[in-house]
């Protein structure tokens, strides 16, 4: 009985640790030059899209302010 408990409490975690160590040893240490270049291109594209979105949001805010101002002037004047 003691041996079974020892196997459960020490054996299973040991197998898990060995499996994780093997997985870590087999993964590549650094991405290839092609992957790095593609990642940089994607990051640059994302940055451009974020800038375009910010500009579009500013234009939308401006248009909304103009529309609400025109409505206010019609209510006050009308």
Keywords, separated by commas or semicolons:
single chain; 78 residues; mainly alpha; 2 helices
Task: Write a short abstract of this structure.
The protein is mainly α and 78 residues long.
Write up this protein.
The chain is mainly alpha-helical and 78 residues long. The protein has 2 helices and no strands. It is elongated and about 90 Å long. The model has no long low-confidence stretch (mean pLDDT 84).
As residue ranges, the low-confidence spans are none
Number of strands: 0
Cα(first) to Cα(last) distance is 92 Å
Major pleated sheet: none
- Sketch the topology as an H/E string, one letter per element: HH
> What's the helical proportion of residues?
over 70%
Task: Work out the strand percent.
Answer: under 5%
Structural class: mainly alpha
The shape, in one word, is: elongated
> What is the alpha-carbon Rg in Å?
30 Å
Number of helices: 2
């Amino acid at each position: 009985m003691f041996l079974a408990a020892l196997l459960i409490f020490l054996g299973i975690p040991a197998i898990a640790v060995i499996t994780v160590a093997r997985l870590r040893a087999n993964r590549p240490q650094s991405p290839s030059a092609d992957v790095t270049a593609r990642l940089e291109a994607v990051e640059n594209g994302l940055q451009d899209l974020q800038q375009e979105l910010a500009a579009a949001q500013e234009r939308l805010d401006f248009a909304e302010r103009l529309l609400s101002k025109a409505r206010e002037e019609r209510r006050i004047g009308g």
